[in-house]
Amino acid sequence: MTLKELADRVSAESGVTPRDAQRALRGFFSVLDTEIEASEVVFLPGFGRLMKRQTADGKERIVLVRRKAAGAEAEDPA
């Protein structure tokens, strides 16, 4: 999904103009980028967390770990 597509969806759901939605999204992603550079984990309340991970070949990746839904229980693989 491109930034324009995301902004269009935000615009449709919130009633703001696509341009304002895109501006807000750019600001949001800029803050996320700054925060993830400053720490290993960025918590997104009610959604999950972004974490830095190192791949086997040494590349750094940012992964989203979704929070578990309320009442969801972990399955026991045993």
Automatic annotation (TrEMBL):
<dbReference type="InterPro" id="IPR010992">
    <property type="entry name" value="IHF-like_DNA-bd_dom_sf"/>
</dbReference>
<protein>
    <submittedName>
        <fullName>HU family DNA-binding protein</fullName>
    </submittedName>
</protein>
<comment type="similarity">
    <text>Belongs to the bacterial histone-like protein family.</text>
</comment>
<dbReference type="GO" id="GO:0030527">
    <property type="term" value="F:structural constituent of chromatin"/>
</dbReference>
<dbReference type="Pfam" id="PF00216">
    <property type="entry name" value="Bac_DNA_binding"/>
</dbReference>
<dbReference type="GO" id="GO:0003677">
    <property type="term" value="F:DNA binding"/>
</dbReference>
<dbReference type="InterPro" id="IPR000119">
    <property type="entry name" value="Hist_DNA-bd"/>
</dbReference>
<keyword id="KW-0238">DNA-binding</keyword>
